[in-house]
Amino acid sequence: MSSGGNASSLPLVGGLPEPTIKELSKPGRRSFNYPALDVPEENIEHEAIKTEKAPLPEVSEHDLVMHFSRLAHRNFAVDLGFYPLGSCTMKYNPRFADWVASLPGFSNTHPATPSKFSQGSLEILNVLEEYLIEITGMDFASFQPPAGASGELTGLLIIKRYLENNGFDEKTNIIVPDSAHGTNPASAKMAGFNVVEVATDINGLVDVNELKTLVNEKTAGLMLTNPNTGGLFEEDILEISSIIHDAGGLLYYDGANLNAIVGVSRPGDMGFDIVHSNLHKTFATPHGGGGPGSGPVAVKEYLKEYLPGPIVKKVNDTYEWYQPQFSIGRMHGYHGNFLVALRALAYMKLLGKEGLDNLGSYAVLNARYLASVLSKTLPLAYAKPCMHEFVATVKELKKSHKIKAYDVGKAMLDKGFHSPTIYFPLIIEEALMFEPTETQSVDTLDDLAHSISLIIEDLKDNNQNLSNYPKNLPVGRPNELIPAKHLTVNWGDFELLEITE
Ligand SMILES: Cc1ncc(COP(=O)(O)O)c(C=O)c1O
Questions:
Q1: What does each C-alpha distance from 472 to 12, 71, 413 come to in angstroms?
Q2: What is the pLDDT of residue 493?
Q3: Which of 68, 281, 294, 353 could share a disulfide with 340, CB 3.0–4.6 Å?
Q4: 69: CB partners within 8 A, 6+ apart
Q5: Starting from the edge strand earliest in sequence, which strands make up the sheet with 297-299, in order?
Q6: Do you find a cis peptide bond into 104, omega within 30 degrees of 0?
Q7: What is the dihedral of CA 208, 214, 216, 222, to 10 degrees?
Q8: How far apart are CA 229 and CA 371, in angstroms?
């Protein structure tokens, strides 16, 4: 391993290291001029007033713009290239939705504005609630949770409060498939439940026979995403839902994979009692480090009074805030991330009914096309036709040529593609999970499949290339373990460590 302690010695691959904004600083340079004072100057004297100047970087406007533009160009983005990151739905988010969210009437409204002065914003939430209810097959929704994981915790706290209120204190177990996203068991644990794992069968679906043996009087509920994390539709969902309901448990739908079924099927019709939607994946806000998200939770009528409040209620022709009677309490300040909700509504209006009806079908069509072309190079983990994403594996290539999923993902970066999700779901060895989404053209899908076939040929022929990729990017293979174990967010202490083996 090699290491570097400051910017100038960072072991960046291909390209000069970018100085930090502090290193660019020269005394007296400015990017900003204050407007002329238009009130009498006051000398405020107080012990809390700082006497020395804040050590802020001093740079000209042009240097500042160039610095951050250069950094931005070093990032991979949905707007730059294909981003087939499975489970993350990295689709194109139209500028139109951003434009709507930037309208001052919405973006400048303080969330504490009384409802009689913010009727338009309340109407947005009310209409979006109606759309989400229609799409998911539920009855009421709260927009407070700011992410999918927060939606999961919200749903589980609702299950807990509902069971307690109805005298089912013995119900302490939440069943979670072994293929689930890590946030599922983590949310169940945070809400105070025990996690019981149910296995996936050889076809990639919940093992219903095992489920029957795990369900008992302690069962509080089941968390499931459908299609599941292997990209397969849980076709026994109606039987699964009866098994859980017959035991007095509730069904929670992890809406991370809603993109596959929008316009085709609805969690509410499958028997789910609580659903979160990832507005930041399915409806026009990017998922990941790109900003705040929104994971609204929708429930069947009998759970309405448990939602985090306040929620919007329409009374005659006006909109009011309503506090549900047994509410689990707040999951976020005010009403959640309103502008993300607004983007989602703008996106739905832009697509219209026809566009929304086709959304899931096109996402599945793209994934099936890519799976079929790519399967000539990489074996797929399951034989069943996939939904909006699929998992390939280099398990055999690892045995024969030492090629790992990690190597393929890194080599893809050099070809101008983001890596697929690797090593997830955990139950599939050397997994590469692709999710093309409905917004990629067939030409891009073909390019990706062709590039991967070249990568595999290259890695097979030139074994020494295995750990060399990416060769043309500013950062090669940073050590992912050390930052996870020793989080350091100060630049001065930052070490970029490269894996050499
Ligand atoms: C299957 C699944 N469940 C839950 C989540 C958590 O969602 P979030 O990142 O919005 O918290 C994700 C994230 O992508 C996911 O893929």
A1: 10, 16, 9
A2: 53
A3: 294
A4: none
A5: 140-142, 297-299, 274-277, 250-255, 219-224, 173-177, 194-198
A6: no
A7: -70
A8: 15
Q: Choose among 405, 330, 296, 390: nearest CA to 157.
A: 330
Q: What is the pLDDT of residues 230-268, one digit of tens each?
A: 999 999 999 999 999 999 999 999 999 999 999 999 999
- Among protein residues, the one whose CA lies closest to atom 15 of ligand 1: 256
Instruction: Tell me which H or E stretch contains 219.
Output: strand 219-224
In 294-419, alpha helices (H): 338-374, 395-401, 405-414
Distance CA 104, CA 53 (A): 34
Q: What are phi and psi of 321, to 5 degrees?
A: -85, 140
Ligand 1 centroid vs 205 CA: distance in angstroms?
Answer: 19
DSSP helix/strand/coil, 411: helix
Ligand 1 centroid from CA 33, angstroms:
43
In contact, 151 and 145? CB cutoff 8 Å: yes
Q: For the chain, what percent of residues have pLDDT higher than 90?
A: 80
Q: What domains can you pick out in the chain, each with its CATH number?
A: 96-350 (3.40.640.10)
DSSP 8-state symbol, 499: P
User: Which protein residue's CA is at the shortest distance from atom 7 of ligand 1?
Assistant: 148
Residues whose beta carbon lies within 6 Å of some atom of ligand 1? 87-88, 147-149, 181, 183, 225, 229, 254, 256, 278, 293, 295
Cα 213 from Cα 215, distance rounded (Å): 6
Tokens 């507005």 identify what position?
279
The 10s digit of each residue's pLDDT in 355-410 is 999 999 999 999 999 999 999 999 999 999 999 999 999 999 999 999 999 999 99
Query: Measured between alpha carbons, how far apart are the two ends of the chain, in Å?
Result: 8
Mutate to test the pocket of ligand 1, among 254, 275, 332 (most ligand atoms within 8 A of CB): 254
> Counting atoms of ligand 1 from 1, which one is nearest the CA of 280?
10
Q: Radius of gyration over alpha carbons of the chain, in Å?
A: 25
**Those residues with Cβ within 8 angstroms of residue 44's Cβ, 6 or more apart along the chain or in another chain:** none
Question: Which token pair is 438?
Answer: 């409905």
Residue 320 φ then ψ, to 5°? -130, 160
**254: amino acid identity, one letter:** D
Burial string for 467-497 (b: 16+ CB within 10 Å, else e) reads: bbbbeebbbbbebeeeeeeeeeeeeeeeebb
Could you tell me the two tokens for 196? 């019981």
* Helix residue spans in 104-203 (DSSP H): 104-107, 119-136, 148-165, 183-190
| 456 torsion bin: left (phi>0), alpha (psi -120 to 50), beta (else) | alpha
